[in-house]
Design brief:
Distance between the termini: 77 Å
Shape: rod-shaped
Strand order of the largest sheet: 1-2-3-5-4
Number of strands: 5
Radius of gyration: 29 Å
Number of helices: 5
Number of domains: 2
Strand content: 15-25%
Oligomer: single chain
Length: 152
């Protein structure tokens, strides 16, 4: 059935495949099928120009489609890549990193290198030089759940 459909549609089969892939992208968004759909449409453009040529066999068409898909996905990945984007919230999902530079008062003394501070509504475990309760400290680093502080 597919072979008959491709034979009847000729070079337009690639256009149909490309449009189907683009519609599938709407149903399953992920910005991946769009690049393969674009490759199918480009293969369709080449098919319109080369359909009667002996060199334009189905094997060559699939090879061209595979190569164009690879190139389109790589270009698409570069376009969609989030690297280098400027944002007003660079540490949005890195709460500890967003606290670097803030100052606080020790809730529990730092003894043997460990203590606690309160920032906003959270008590944080801190590492730093031994200091008494009430001392002012500045957060200098975050390693996940613990903050590193220094005396202010």
């Amino acid at each position: 059935m597919v072979q008959r459909l491709v034979a009847e549609l000729g070079p337009w089969a690639w256009w149909v495949a490309g449009i189907v892939l683009l519609m599938l992208e709407l149903l399953m968004p992920g910005v991946f099928l769009v690049w393969i759909g674009i490759a199918a449409i480009l293969t369709g453009l080449l098919s319109l120009a080369l359909w009667g040529e002996a060199v334009w066999s189905w094997q060559v068409q699939w090879t061209v489609f595979a190569a164009l898909s690879l190139v389109a996905v790589l270009i698409g990945r570069r376009i969609v890549s989030r690297r280098g984007r400027i944002t007003d919230e660079p540490h949005l999902n890195q709460r500890g990193q967003s606290l670097v530079g803030r100052t606080a008062t020790l809730e529990q003394p730092i003894t043997e290198g460990r203590g606690r501070i309160r920032l906003d509504d959270t008590l944080w475990t801190v590492q730093g030089p031994d200091l008494p309760v009430g001392a002012r400290v500045r957060v200098t680093a975050s390693n996940g759940r613990d903050l590193t502080v220094e005396a202010v």
